[in-house]
Automatic annotation (TrEMBL):
<dbReference type="InterPro" id="IPR003718">
    <property type="entry name" value="OsmC/Ohr_fam"/>
</dbReference>
<dbReference type="InterPro" id="IPR036102">
    <property type="entry name" value="OsmC/Ohrsf"/>
</dbReference>
<protein>
    <submittedName>
        <fullName>OsmC family peroxiredoxin</fullName>
    </submittedName>
</protein>
<dbReference type="InterPro" id="IPR015946">
    <property type="entry name" value="KH_dom-like_a/b"/>
</dbReference>
<dbReference type="Pfam" id="PF02566">
    <property type="entry name" value="OsmC"/>
</dbReference>
Length: 131
């Protein structure tokens, strides 16, 4: 993967992934930015949340779990780095809670972004809420 960073103005920048997709990054006003986009650090939590969701849907399909609704609320405890991750997993499905838990455990083993956090020894906790 090759990414390109381009400064727009002040701290506002654009980062392109080389496949035609780009994101804006900025700092909040209290840090001297214009707050027109998330901080790079915030993209880490957003990437993790998106990865968990995407991999879960993929694993669920393979396990024949019908995901009717899915919302994941992720909270990252932040110090100098991300110290811990806690997320609530809201799901409407025909599957049992045990099957959803198994699917989520598999997801955590295969989510590439999550693996980076695990290798950095960032602890994860989660709660499943059946809708």
């Amino acid at each position: 993967m090759k990414c390109t960073y381009k400064l727009i103005d002040g701290y506002l920048s654009e980062v392109d992934n080389g496949r035609g997709h780009s994101v804006l990054m900025d700092l909040p006003t209290e840090a001297g930015g214009t707050d027109k986009a998330p901080k790079a650090f915030e993209y880490l939590a957003m990437a993790l949340n998106g990865c968990i969701g995407t991999i879960f849907v993929d694993v669920a399909r393979k396990m024949r779990i019908d995901v009717q609704e899915l919302k994941i609320e992720l909270n990252a405890e932040v110090g100098d780095t991300i110290d811990s991750i806690d997320y609530k997993f809201y799901i409407k499905t025909n599957a049992t809670p045990a099957k959803v838990e198994k699917c989520l455990d598999t997801t955590e083993r295969y989510c590439p972004v999550g693996l980076l956090f695990h290798k950095a020894n960032v602890p994860f906790t989660h709660e499943i809420v059946m809708l």
